[in-house]
Amino acid sequence: MTTKKSSAITRRATMRDVAEHIGVSVSTVSLALRNDPRISDKTAQEIKRVAREIGYRPDITGSLLRTNNPRIIGVAAEFSQELHAAYVSNIRSIANRHGYQLAIEDASFYAGYEEALERLAQLRVTNTIAINPCFPEPIPERLEPSVIIGQTSPCPTSSLVRSSNDVGMQELVTHLVDRGYRRILYLDGPKGISARNRRRAIEHAANVNDVWLEIVAAGNSLDDGFLAMQHVLCERSDSPTNQFKEKGIATAVVGYNDQCIQGAVIALERAGLRIPLDVAVAGFDNSSIAASRAFGLTSVDRGIAQVSEYAVELAIERHNNTKIGAKTLVVDSHLVVRNTTTPVA
Hints:
Elements: H1 15-22, H2 26-33, H3 41-54, H4 60-66, E1 72-77, H5 82-97, E2 101-106, H6 113-122, E3 128-131, E4 147-149, E5 159-164, H7 166-178, E6 181-188, H8 193-208, E7 212-217, H9 222-235, H10 240-243, E8 250-255, H11 258-270, E9 280-285, H12 288-291, E10 298-301, H13 304-320, E11 328-332, E12 334-336
Parallel strand pairs: 1-2, 1-3, 3-4, 4-5, 5-11, 6-7, 6-8, 8-9, 9-10
Antiparallel strand pairs: 10-12
Helix pairs in contact: 1-2, 1-3, 5-13, 7-8, 9-11
């Protein structure tokens, strides 16, 4: 395969321009840009290089108008949540590997998920994945996602990929007990199914391990965790250190998610508490915050990679057969131990 010498293109570059520069067919270029496995890696890389060089950009709108069943998956998520952003990143990589493109809407920009899905439908994107959506009222069937990532599906036609809290939460509580912690202060999440299921999981794990559990209202953001922890510290008269080793019983703090517990950590450290010497802390989601060297937070991993794989597979199934029935797939969570829960001195 010989690449022809590039010449200036004053109009918008087309797929045919890419094909003529390389000396291949337009269909070969189309397949390569969709990451179709029938095209060799060497040829695909050369096609993509030339496409970048001459300024070719895929015409997604035109593709939607030209075909009745485009290889596009819509995604509705809330990018303010790091977990959602991580899911979208994984879904994009997996979808591209299968030759699909993504059309993404941030539900936090609109009044809610229904409006985000409506926007996707206006672009003729009907095969969608919604990440932990909330619908105050039933939505029209035409807007129901193909796949929902969350704890439950509010839409009867949607498949569900659910990350189970139970295994990871049990591992976390057992881990804390093994290190001498007999009390847990749990910073609860915002109202909703996700928080309710996570709360039930830690209540069950605490009961099984005979651990005293106190639940405090918080939320899912850094500020939520900071304010909730600050309130706990202010309403108790003992010194901060005594609060977390009451009558010799060590206490750990667990957050609804990693962002929440990050805020709690700031409040604890401002109060003069040392982590983990005075108090152990742990989060949920195993986000990049938790995994960072700066933070090194013990956290429960929700199996994001496997959840994303399942979600894309189910969306592709729906693309190939729109009449396929709804399915439910479950991925177990697991504990990742880092340096915020070392043994009690």
